Amino acid sequence: MHAYLRTRGVPRKLDYGFLGAAPGSRWWDAYSELTATERPCLLAVTSKGRWRVLISGVPSTRTDSVGTLVYYTLVLDGSPCPTGTVGAARQDRPTVLALASRWLDDIARDPQGRGVLSELLDGLCSSAEVDRLLAARHSELTTERAELTARLATALASLNPGPSAPSAPDTDAPSLVLNTERWIAGRTAPGADAAFLARLSSLLSGEDGQAHLLNLVSSAEDVTTLPQKPGLLAVLIEGGLVGDPAMPAEALPKLRSEVVASAPKARWRAALVPTALTALILLLVGLALIAGNWI
Questions:
Q1: How far apart are alpha carbons 36 and 42 in whole angstroms?
Q2: Gap between the Cα atoms of 108 and 115, Å rounded
Q3: What is the four-CA torsion angle of 77, 83, 86, 91, rounded to 10 degrees?
Q4: What does the CA dihedral 40, 216, 100, 31 come to, rounded to 10 degrees?
Q5: For 207-262, where are the E strands, in sequence order?
Q6: At residue 207, what are phi and psi to the nearest 5 degrees?
Q7: pTM for the complete prediction?
Q8: By the 8 A CB rule, do 107 and 238 touch?
Q9: CB atoms within 10 A of CB 294
Q10: Which residue(s) pair with 182 in the sheet?
Q11: Distance, CA of 252 to CA of 53 (rounded, Å)
Q12: How many C-beta atoms surround the C-beta of residue 274 within 10 A?
């Protein structure tokens, strides 16, 4: 598993950047209409044997030079870890699940998300060290950057699951919709947090799909602009900016491509239409030529 940490410094010129290495792409930009990364959110995608997770909007105690709150973004990626996997990769799935459950718990306890993750990330390095790393070129301070990355990995591995973990008892009756392949629900809907983490666990184990905590979504209609990827889908409405965090669970329709693929008759009809049109055009051309000869 690779872990990347992004934040900003105190001087205004030290804008948001990664303190160590940076991910190969800004894949999360595809979700910019659905969530604001400066507010609490979570994105998770598994595709083609690789999973990617973003946790963003984690507040720091630090502020910039004009008093604006500073936040952290964590980006993680790795290979799926099926049951029975041995070696270092075996720890990746429980680490990410503990991180996600702690983040959900922090958001539930504080509107800004201040809690365990804030303390953990603030404790990784001092404000002066953040400024020094952001001010230097990426090719500089390589030893310090590597040490910070190692501390980050150690800190994440030491996290214990929060109360939202799938194994925690749920006193409220969850909706049966949460057992379907594609659903959306408010973050505080009964059973939604545990179902979300269970879905995230499936993605980390290798099932293709998406699991997101979004803060610019208020209804099922809003996720029509979600990047269309096959597989499982779970969406939590964060409710910090728009939407109702207690919205009851609602099933989401399958992708159009999945519906067509599962309907042989639909494929047959789709192939028949172009053939029929071609035959009709040829017939009209032939009639026109015959009419021209008569004239």
A1: 10
A2: 10
A3: 50
A4: -110
A5: 209-214, 232-237, 250-251
A6: -75, 135
A7: 0.83
A8: yes
A9: 5
A10: 233
A11: 22
A12: 9
Tens-digit pLDDT profile for residues 97-156: 999 999 999 999 998 999 999 999 999 999 999 999 999 998 999 999 999 999 999 999
- Interacting residues of 272 by C-beta distance below 8 A, sequence separation 6+: none
Kind of pairing between the strands at 69-78 and 2-7: antiparallel
Beta bridge partners of 43: 54, 212
Taking the C-alpha atoms of residue 134 and residue 99, their distance in angstroms, rounded to an integer, is 25
- pLDDT at site 213: 98
- Yes or no: say if 93 and 206 are a contact pair by the CB < 8 Å rule: no
Q: Identify residue 47 by its one-letter amino acid code.
A: S
Q: Which run of H or of E encompasses 54?
A: strand 50-63
Q: Which residues of 204-228 are buried (b: 16+ CB within 10 A; e: fewer)?
A: bebbbbbbbbbbbbeebebbeebee
Question: Which tokens go with 6?
Answer: 């992004």
Separation CA 203–CA 251 (nearest Å): 19
DSSP 27: G
Question: pLDDT tens digit string along 165-197?
Answer: 444 444 466 789 999 999 999 999 999 999 999
Query: Please, what's the b/e burial string for 70-83 (b: 16 or more CB within 10 A of its CB; e: otherwise)?
Result: bbbbbbbbbebbee
CA angle 186, 189, 190 (to 5 degrees): 155
